[in-house]
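Worked Example 4.2. Consider the chain below.
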Amino acid sequence: MSFASPLVLLALLAIPLLITWYTAQQRRRARAASAFVTPALSPSLAPRRPRWRRHAPMLAFALALVMLIAAAARPQRSVAVPVTSGAIMLANDVSSSMQATDVSPSRLGAAERADRRFLATVPSTVQVGLLEFAKSPVLLQSPTTNHALTAAAFAQFHTSGGTAVGDAILTAVEELRSLPRIHGRRPPGAIVITSDGASNFGSDPLAAARQARAEHIPIYTVAVGTPHGTIEIARGSQTALAPVPVEPEQLGQIARLSSGQAFTASDAAGLSAVYRRLATELGHKRAERQITASFAGGGLVLLLLGGAMSLHWFGRLA
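Applying the procedure from the previous section yields the following structure tokens:
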């Protein structure tokens, strides 16, 4: 929680002065009473003392004052609200190693499922596009608010050799840069890359990540797979298992250089959880909401409570 006018809170320094004044008043009242009545006779003249009830109304008034001062400082809290504009490019690795089944049903299959859940969760006002990449990137769907079109583009996935992460980043950046401006501004953009390894074709992915940061486009990378993944490869008339361990290091560097975030997922459930988090982070933004009315209402309730207690017990307001 924060305050839009924090200097108003300096008025809280008056609370200790109020408590000191109240304590002095109570002592003065006690001395005045003892001047007229011998302490030994006090139990006979006033057998029922108010004890804690004497101070309860004043405590309510003091708390009310604190609440009202806080209300005057315009308290506010940060809440997540859906974005009204924005664009996200989903970039999926379709290299041969993504056929590994260490993540069920396969790395690529789990990524596609997570992508579909992402589309179902992200606000409809956010444009989402899709590209695949192996030796080179292929744009399957430009960013659009019609998420059904993006979902339909998953059917075009096809695997082949190579991993050109750098070229995929540059293609995604160009797509986001070319979007129509809204009120003179380009919609805020982000890239989500799902892959299992380091780039081995095309442009330098780290240089591409720096270019994305220069365009204020963060890259969120998701490394999917385990160190024990394998795929079948043909060797003449025979097939053999080839190890394809996940390599998250370069993906982490890409995320850091672009001011994004890096995630890892070793199973389908973990991958889905990552995409749910991304849908929340990319589909929402933090906004300040004032809660002045709550503080002011609480202060008024305490004022009424203090007044009611004083009238009921002592027949006066204070």
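The chain has a mean pLDDT of 85. The first helix runs from residue 14 to 36. Compare this with Example 4.1 before moving on.
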